């Protein structure tokens, strides 16, 4: 069944009306006696109980006092305030561009919140995103929601809100599923930069970042990502709308769920290991793709032969480089590469490109990289140093 925003609000108003009616009936008051006790006409009591008219904060306070149910005032007021505003369509917000598609994620709310509890199952939270990652993700939503393309402004707005993670009076307790580390937005380079960013922010004194391993025993599974702002608001998103939860007893349930998810996560060194594993897997994938540009060879006492790259998880390929020998310009380039990578690699210009041999003490089978250009060889070395 599809729930539209208007029907959702109507159902919520009717549920609130039913709660107020139950309070009156449980107290033994008739509608007329309640009206007299609260100083209003009995027909207005009837309209409120049938969901025709929304009660004000004062109506709810007077109603609960008359029914001797003061303990429910806070919850009922929160429910009443959320009836019309809890479900906000993204497309309605997006008419003026993605910058305005915030839901509750405003700088004002971020600044007034002290404790952030955040759970995400397939995406890095906006507070921790790099500009490139955010741009890749928001590009899809601009197209999906068919809104004005204000990508640069939307990314800038998101980056501005991130300044709160450096404020020492705040605390950020973030739980991610390991899958969030492996869900790409943009290129491999974008994802690698995002993983590096996670490793960096983990050291902030305001940050507690936990990761739930994919293969682990757990007591709960989150069906959607959600943010808890102090103990006053829960925000979650669907593909088309932002939903805000303000009823205290519902917020308490989200907090309880967060506690279950948090207990399944690993932290500190173990969390860093999961991030680095995702980064290494990403680099191995890139290294595999670069095999079309580089040849991995082994030097043996009997000469040069193709490396058994099965141990690296790489396909075996053959060199097809042709061309002329090195020039004086090549010598300058080689010197620059040697300065960058030190003595770890034996770098030389060869016919048709450049070669780097990994110095492996005690081994007769060092790895050799080939690149058609200096930049190509340098990139291959950087990836190989992480992956090998």
Describe the protein in words:
- The structure is a single chain.
- The chain has 388 residues and is of the alpha+beta class.
- It folds into three domains: 5-82, lambda repressor-like DNA-binding domains (434 Repressor (Amino-terminal Domain), Orthogonal Bundle), CATH 1.10.260.40; 87-279, Endonuclease, Chain A (2-Layer Sandwich); 293-387, no CATH class.
- It has helices at 5-27, 31-38, 42-49, 57-66, 73-82, 90-93, 107-112, 131-144, 151-161, 178-182, 188-201, 248-264, 268-289, 328-341, 374-387; strands spanning 87-89, 115-120, 171-177, 207-212, 226-229, 233-237, 241-245, 297-300, 303-306, 345-350, 353-358, 367-371.
In short:
The chain is of the alpha+beta class.
Count of domains: 3
- In terms of DSSP E residues, the strand content is 15-25%
What is the general shape? elongated
CATH topology of the largest domain: Endonuclease, Chain A
Largest sheet: 7 strands, mixed
Class per helix and strand makeup: alpha+beta
Q: Please work out how many helical segments DSSP would assign.
A: 15
CATH-derived architecture of the largest domain: 2-Layer Sandwich
């Amino acid at each position: 069944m599809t729930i539209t925003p208007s029907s959702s609000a109507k159902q919520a108003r009717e549920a609130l009306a039913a709660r107020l009616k139950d309070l009156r009936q449980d107290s033994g008051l008739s509608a007329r006696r309640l009206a007299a006790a609260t100083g209003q006409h009995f027909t207005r009591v009837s309209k409120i109980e049938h969901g025709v008219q929304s009660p004000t904060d004062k109506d709810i306070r007077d109603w609960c006092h008359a029914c001797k149910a003061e303990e429910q005032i806070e919850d009922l007021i929160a429910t009443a305030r959320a009836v019309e505003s809890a479900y906000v369509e993204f497309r309605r917000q997006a008419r003026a561009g993605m910058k305005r598609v915030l839901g509750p994620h405003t700088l004002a709310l971020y600044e007034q919140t002290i404790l952030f509890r955040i759970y995400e199952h397939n995406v890095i939270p906006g507070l921790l995103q790099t500009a490139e990652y955010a741009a890749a993700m928001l590009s899809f939503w601009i197209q999906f929601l068919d809104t004005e393309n204000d990508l640069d402004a939307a990314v800038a707005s998101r980056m501005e809100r991130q300044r709160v993670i450096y404020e020492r009076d705040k605390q950020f307790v973030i739980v991610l599923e390991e899958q969030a580390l492996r869900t790409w937005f943009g290129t491999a380079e974008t994802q690698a930069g995002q993983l590096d960013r996670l490793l960096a922010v983990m050291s902030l004194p305001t940050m507690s970042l936990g990761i739930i391993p994919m293969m682990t025993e757990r007591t709960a599974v989150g069906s959607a990502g959600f943010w808890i702002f102090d103990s006053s608001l829960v925000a979650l998103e669907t593909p088309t709308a932002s939903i805000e939860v303000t009823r205290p007893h519902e917020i308490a349930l989200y907090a309880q769920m967060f506690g279950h998810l948090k207990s399944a996560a690993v932290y500190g060194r173990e969390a860093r290991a999961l991030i680095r594993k995702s980064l290494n897997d990403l680099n191995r994938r890139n290294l595999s793709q670069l095999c079309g540009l580089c040849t991995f060879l082994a030097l043996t006492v009997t000469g040069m032969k193709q490396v058994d790259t099965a141990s690296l998880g790489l396909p075996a390929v053959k060199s097809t480089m042709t061309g002329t020998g090195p020039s004086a310009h090549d010598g300058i380039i080689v010197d620059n590469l040697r300065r960058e990578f030190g003595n770890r690699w034996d770098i030389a210009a060869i016919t048709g490109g450049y070669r780097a041999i990994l110095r492996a003490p005690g081994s007769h089978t060092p790895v050799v990289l080939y690149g058609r250009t200096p930049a190509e060889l340098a990139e291959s070395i950087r990836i190989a140093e992480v992956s090998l």
